[in-house]
Amino acid sequence: MAAPEEATIMSGAMKMFDSCHLKPESLETGRIRNVLDETMAKLELSSLIPRVVDSLDMCADVLGPEITNSLIEHQKLSNELEQLLASSGDGNTGEAEEQRGRLCLLEQRLKCSVRNVLRLFLANPLLCQALKDEVWDRESPAEEFLKAFGEFRYFMLERLLTSPMEEEEKTRLLAGISLQMKKNTEAIAALQAELAAATRAREEEILKKETVIKDLQTSMRDLTAACLASTQQIRQEGEQQQEEMLRASRARRAGLQQHLQQLQVQLNALVLEHRASELALRKRKCRMETEIGNWIQKYNTDMAEKQAEYKEVRAAYAEEKAQLSLLMEKRELLLQEYSQIEEERRIHQEKKEQALKELTIMTLAATRIQAFWRGYLVRSLLRPKRKKKKKQGKGKGKGKGKGKKAKK
């Protein structure tokens, strides 16, 4: 439990260090970083050489003749080195010395071959990038070495870019982290002790429950045996009760059989008794059927007479209805003529009244005209007389005036 917590604390510390302000990069630091980057690139290409050699037939057109020849030479040297290493365990001391000499020579030649291949690869940046972009399965040792070198590069750059004060702060922080880890370890130990105690208590409780379960199982077995005994007893009692009920049923059946025989005798007596009444009822039924037949025949005769009478009445009704329709048509014509006559009478009466009114008006007008004319004639006859009287009156007036003046 302490290992994951320790890893978590260390990762947090590394993040804190990464977030610190590093000192500016100097010229020497830049050169060292460039050397490390170039070395990392060469190592990556070196790890890809075995895979490229294995797929040399497919990559020959892309690599070119010079690189292909160098890789073939490198493959030959690798094979010779493997064969030499495989046979190095056999032979005496002289041969071993000779093999070591040959091994050193092959190692030197292999190193030169690797440097030559890397030089050719680095001379073609596009090819290097294509090889890096291609998905290659590196061998596990090469992958681990690249990972270790990457960590070494990160550590070196961190050491180069970290100031002394930051180094001291880092040391203090690591000391605090160690102290915290120690405390956490103690707390984990205490928790583990508590867990062990809880586990023991849990086991004791489980043991108690197992004991209770065993007791319950024993009681269940006893209860099962008691149930079987009770079931057997109930079955025996049921069989006895069934036998008693069977005997009672047989006795009851005998009594019912005897009662049935008595009822059969009574039934036979009643049948004989009711046959006479049935015969009388049959005779009465025949008589009633005869009477009903007579009544039906009489009903049919009466209905035939009524039907004939109904047909006659219906024929008379049809004839009278035809006459009624003719009379109604004549009535309609007469009503039309009567309405025309009434209309003519009304118009004649209106004309007569109008003529009478006009005559009255004309008579009144003539009377007035005559009266007006008579008045006009009278006035025309009286007008000269009035003129004469006026003249006479004027002469008298003048004479009276002159007499008055003379008197004065």
From TrEMBL:
Gene3D superfamilies: 1.20.5.190
Location, primary (coarse class): cytoplasm
Keyword Nucleotidyltransferase: no
UniProt feature coiled coil, ranges: 181-208, 246-358
CDD domains membership: IQCD (cd23767)
Family: Belongs to the DRC10 family.
Oligomeric form and interacting partners: Component of the nexin-dynein regulatory complex (N-DRC). Interacts with CFAP52.
Protein name per Swiss-Prot or TrEMBL: Dynein regulatory complex protein 10
